[in-house]
UniProtKB/TrEMBL annotation:
This is Cysteine--tRNA ligase. It is an enzyme of class 6 (ligase). Its cofactor is Zn(2+). Keywords: Aminoacyl-tRNA synthetase, ATP-binding, Cytoplasm, Ligase, Metal-binding, Nucleotide-binding, Protein biosynthesis, Zinc.
Length: 474
């Protein structure tokens, strides 16, 4: 049983070191992760990020309590890619109606996909279009204190106004300017300056503002939404490595300069890249796969993959390391999952396991946690550790694995009808051997069944006669 609160430690991209995690307020631990831009179905790289920060959310809830963690994952529903998709897919509709159709459909699919991957709903899922006022207020502050300027019909952030711009990515303005050529008529003061607000034409979505009808730049969206729901400074900000620069770097610049704060988030966590069969995922290479494809079609490896298997395949690599997503990897994950779930099915409730919690407390070490699950599975089968089955069930719950109907899972992935009949015959033969006091034969049958992952449990029935029931734990 767990006797003390775990001590969490996470790697912080900002400091480039791992350190003990100390929340600003243990009664309200605050986490923000960048969510989808809803112009197309989410690909498996997006799925990895969703799984990683869902796991973090679960671990924080376990340590601090479910009601003491606020997880915000945004939905970006204003973007030039969305506009292009709306015009392509719905050319006969008014643009605003076409955009709404694209974003509503895509956002709903994203929720369905990540739910199938075992992800909990975040505490809040704000939409960018519902937070335009907050973005405009931030821009007004930046203009007022000299960190932004209007030029060429846009409002831009002045990167040279921030002395320590570039800390997260390790870049500085000299690096950004080196080799850059600035056109004579460019309205940017520096090439590194980025857009906070840009003009919209009559056939583009837009909102009235002090700088004319327009729409927000990408980076300002997350700054406004995180401030609204988590405050000017919060505990953890997460996302993929590809977001470190420019997105997260520019979020930090906007938020800190608008509020005069020392930090936007105290800890920055980033998951590693994902490639497919040894290559960068690309539509041109034919190796670009969406979560929906993996779940619902046979496009990858000639079969559909259960959400539990996809989640396990992701967690078999530490979140900060790159993943090579292969059919072989999914086949391995499917085999491991089958052994774990069949061993855990008999247990309705879990018992906390200190070793597994310690693994996840150490920078979300899911690799070590999965090894611990396998150890618990073996201990459960061989009755080698007290409460091993219940600890396994707890571990699967904490790691975010959902349970479908046990009978359905066994029918699809476990013991089929033929094997069931054969098992029943062997169980009956062993029982007959026990009644005949042929203990050597009885032990031989038990061992043979155990090698198949089938565990026997002897008991007395209502009439006092010896009986045996069996379970699959493989």
């Amino acid at each position: 049983m767990t006797t003390a609160q775990p001590h969490l430690s996470f790697y912080n991209t900002l400091t480039r070191s791992k350190a003990a995690f100390e929340p600003m307020d243990a009664a309200n631990v605050r986490l923000y992760a960048c969510g989808p831009t809803v112009y197309d179905f989410a690909h498996i790289g997006n799925g990895r990020a969703a799984i990683v920060f869902d796991l973090l959310f679960r671990v924080l809830r376990h340590v601090y309590g479910e009601s003491h963690v606020t997880y915000v994952r945004n939905i970006t529903d204003v973007d030039d890619k969305i506009n292009a998709r709306a015009l392509r897919d719905h050319p006969d509709l008014p643009l605003n109606e076409a955009i709404r159709k694209v974003t509503e459909t895509t956002a709903a699919q994203y929720q369905k996909d990540v739910s199938a991957l075992g992800c909990l709903e975040p505490s809040v899922q704000p939409r960018a279009t519902d937070n335009i006022d907050g973005m405009q207020r931030l821009i007004e502050r930046l203009l007022a204190n000299g960190h932004a300027y209007a030029a060429g019909g846009e409002v831009l952030f002045a990167t040279d106004s921030m002395a320590d711009y570039g800390q997260l990515s390790g870049r500085n303005l000299e690096d950004n300017l080196a080799g850059a050529r600035v056109a004579v008529d460019s309205h940017k003061r520096n090439p590194a300056d980025f857009v906070l607000w840009k003009q919209s034409s009559d056939d583009e979505p837009g909102w009235d503002s002090p700088w004319g009808r327009g729409r927000p730049g990408w980076h300002i969206e997350c700054s406004a939404m995180s401030e609204r729901y988590l405050g000017e400074t919060f505990d953890i900000h997460g996302g993929g490595l590809d977001l470190i620069f420019p997105h997260h770097e520019n979020e930090i610049a906007q938020s800190r300069c608008a509020h005069g704060s020392h930090a936007m988030a105290n800890v920055w966590m980033h998951n590693g890249f994902l490639q497919v069969e040894g290559q960068k995922m690309s539509k041109s290479l034919g190796n670009f796969f969406t979560i929906h494809q993996l779940l619902e079609t046979e496009d990858f490896g000639g079969r559909k993959w259960p959400g539990e298997v996809l989640r396990l395949a992701m967690l078999m690599t530490h979140y900060r390391e790159p993943i090579d997503f292969t059919v072989k990897r999914l086949e391995e994950a499917h085999s491991i999952w089958n052994t774990l779930v069949t061993a855990a099915i008999p247990y309705d409730t879990g018992v906390p396991d200190d070793e597994l919690i310690a693994c996840l407390s150490d920078d979300l070490n899911s690799v070590a946690a999965i090894k611990r699950l396998q150890t618990l599975r073996n201990a459960s089968v061989h009755e080698a550790e007290p409460f091993a089955g219940q600890k396994l069930r707890f571990g699967l719950d904490l790691l975010g694995f959902k349970y479908r109907n046990a009978a359905q899972w066994l029918e699809e992935n476990g013991v089929g009808a033929t094997e069931t009949a054969q098992t029943e015959q062997q169980v009956a033969a062993r029982l007959a051997a026990l009644n005949a006091k042929d203990f050597a034969r009885a032990d031989e049958i038990r061992s043979e069944l155990a090698s198949k992952g089938i565990v026997l449990m002897d008991y007395k029935d209502e009439s006092g006669q010896r009986a045996t029931k069996w379970e699959v734990k493989r």
